[in-house]
Amino acid sequence: MAKALQTAVARQRMLLSSRLASPMRRLAKDCAAVWPERKALEQVLERGLELLPYSKYLFILDQSARQITSNISHKGQLPENFDRDRSERPYLADALAGEKFSLSNAYISRNARRPTLTAARHILDKDDRLLGYLGVDFDLRELPLTREVYQQEEKWMQIKGDPAIRGGLFMQQRIDSAMDERIDEVLDLIVELVEVHGVFHAKLHFSSSRATLWLLDDPFRYRILDIEDLTDPGICLAWKQHAYPADAEIPIERVKDVFHTLRDLRFMDETIYLRAGSLNIFNGTVGLNFSCDGSHYMHWSEFLDKDVGFWVGTGNLEGNNGNAD
């Protein structure tokens, strides 16, 4: 997982932990006061739903992590979970190891098959001796955390592809596609669509002679253009004009340079060559997929700093430098 993404997840876990600590401490004390009466414990948990309004289930375990109540939810009790042995469940590992309060890593729940977190709190008697455990499950989609938009780290990422393709690399040779034969026409049109008609992400599939495009005016749907479309300037009549975005990461005058460099990589070698390339103008990322099936993602400025000789001579076309975490 990328470092920035790990940081964002850790921040959300800290926020959730701070919100849970006090109400779960109070609930654990209330449970200790009626221990070990099942009905009384379930009544405490039902009241606890008001303290933990975004919880999915509340339950009580004894010292051996065997459940001694039903699951308590906002929709009622689930008695089928009574007497369930949870001692081997990973989300209880920290609690069983001695942590008075713990919050598990996210996991896929057994029943709903959705991302879930479990918080656990020790239930202690007046002499601080362990009686059991208070458990609370949370469905991640129901948590009201203020999630920041995750920002991808701006670094060169290299990712290995299919080992079967890499193994047979030197037994293959580039064959001219329909797009290769009319590449200059295609690139001129793609540049026009990006600069004037609101295309903010364009991916060219050189080998299969098609393009996938995302538009500012309809960003949730992509368009697929075949070679007939890509060699017909008349398609511009069907696309609204759109001013080049002021907040684009790549200046408009460098868009053409990126696509022309993609062309150079397509024809740089008969064995090692570009199969597909893309540009997103907002994060300024260029995506590359080579004949060895290695993929690269890098900032447009770094991409343009490297000439064709670098790509022909590099040993990292397969994506084996370990940066793609």
Give the topology, please:
Layout: H1 3-34, H2 38-51, E1 57-62, E2 71-73, E3 76-78, H3 93-96, E4 101-103, E5 107-108, E6 115-124, E7 130-139, E8 157-159, H4 163-167, H5 178-181, H6 183-196, E9 199-205, E10 210-215, E11 218-226, H7 227-230, H8 252-266, E12 274-280, E13 285-290, E14 295-299, H9 300-305, H10 308-313
Antiparallel strand pairs: 1-7, 2-3, 4-6, 5-6, 6-7, 8-14, 9-10, 9-12, 10-11, 12-13, 13-14
Helix pairs in contact: 1-2, 6-8
Describe the structure.
The chain has helices spanning 3-34, 38-51, 93-96, 163-167, 178-181, 183-196, 227-230, 252-266, 300-305, 308-313; strands at residues 57-62, 71-73, 76-78, 101-103, 107-108, 115-124, 130-139, 157-159, 199-205, 210-215, 218-226, 274-280, 285-290, 295-299. The chain has 325 residues and is α+β, with helices and mostly antiparallel strands. It folds into two domains: 12-142, PAS domain (Beta-Lactamase, 2-Layer Sandwich); 157-313, no CATH class. α1 packs across α2. 30% of the residues are buried. Mean pLDDT is 85; it is low at 320-325.
Short recap of the structure:
With 325 residues, the chain is of the alpha+beta class. The protein has ten helices and 14 strands. Strands 8-14-13-12-9-10-11 form a seven-stranded antiparallel sheet. Strands 1, 4, 5, 6 and 7 form a five-stranded antiparallel sheet that branches.
What is the CA-CA span between the terminal residues?
A: 5 Å
- What proportion strand? 15-25%
Assembly state: single chain
What's the tally of helices? 10
Mean pLDDT: 85
Q: Shape, please?
A: elongated
Number of extended strands:
14
**Please, how many domains?**
2
What structural class results from the helix and strand content? alpha+beta
The helicity comes to 25-40%
Please describe the biggest sheet, giving its number of strands, its sense, and whether it closes into a barrel: 7 strands, antiparallel
What would you report as the Rg, rounded to the nearest angstrom? 28 Å
What is the string of helix and strand elements? HHEEEHEEEEEHHHEEEHHEEEHH
Question: Taking strands numbered 1, 2, ... along the chain, how are they ordered across the largest sheet?
Answer: 8-14-13-12-9-10-11
